[in-house]
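Office hours follow-up: a student asked to see two folded examples consecutively, so here they are.
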Amino acid sequence: MSIKHALSVLLLVASAAHAHVRMDEGRVVLPSFAIDRTEVTIAQFERYVQATGTVTRAEKEGGGFEYGAGWERRPGWSWRKPDGQTTRADMPAVHLDFAEAQAYCRWAGGRLPTGDEWQKAGFTELRDAPLHRGPKAALTHGPQATARKALTPATPTHGRVPPPQARHAKV
């Protein structure tokens, strides 16, 4: 089976080995959990590779895939060179398949999020107030303010990986 697409790996840290999901009036109710604020970086994945000797499928098969006119193999593309060229170590590790992502998470002491956890973490606004900058900071009510709130990051990272104590968000 070929790699269907590149995955940005998210490490999920949970208090229990498996989240218990229950249905409540037709809705999925999840217990609280913690998830990394950022994707696993190239530097983090490099430490895993050095410790385990892992060679990824993209490396073995000559490159990862990109969706162009259908899925197209890109020679030389791997987690080391996401678009065929060396990049910064704080960029997300991509061109990994599901088994590789799972293996990394086990090694790092976590797991991948479930589909429901991913949805909750990605699409649930839990901040008291968004970070506002510039002239639009006065928008506080109405649909524009709601859209701005949903799209504004809680903590600007400016391309840097946050310090360890700020890496996990409780959801």
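And the second, which I mentioned at the end of office hours:
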Amino acid sequence: MMEWIKFLPVVVLLAGPAGSRDCAHCPEMVVVPAGTAIPRCRRLGSLSQPDETAARTFEIRAPFVVSRYEVTRDQYEVFVHATRRAIEGNCLTDRSKRGNWVFDAGTTFRDPGFPQRSDHPVACVSWDDAQAYVVWLNSQTDGGYRLLTEIEWEYVSRASALQDAHTWSPSHDQRGTRRPLGTSSADR
């Protein structure tokens, strides 16, 4: 089970210092206002955990700063090149047979098992990869970057509105046009 969690395709969203952009390859940052986060999930059979189904309220007491978009493949590639980080794979994908999700040793963030452009969110990175990216980003700037907490992520991706089920907010519309988190009905 730990291997599945480690290599679940994810995007990285950072909280960090205020300001538009700290460097050319840094994410663009925006302020998120304080408010109330109400994460919850409708029962999804074996996919639901008991603690996910009850609506709970969390107060976000102070504004915080996040990247306007998920970290892109290009931004992550700068990190990989600069640090010579080993590229791991074995991500969960259904590219061999649609609907049949299996681990594929041939997948990496450069080829996650589905078409991507360089300005799309990085996928097929582990939690360790994401943490290493943040450490490197802090070394390139005045610091202050970190990964969001689960509650912060839900608050930002849902724009603090109740939903019936978890939805991972797409940051690109159907034409592939990049847009900020929270601007789609899927984000609410």
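Two things to take away from it. Strands lie at 14-15, 29-32, 35-37, 58-60, 64-67, 91-93, 102-104, 146-147. The chain has a mean pLDDT of 74.
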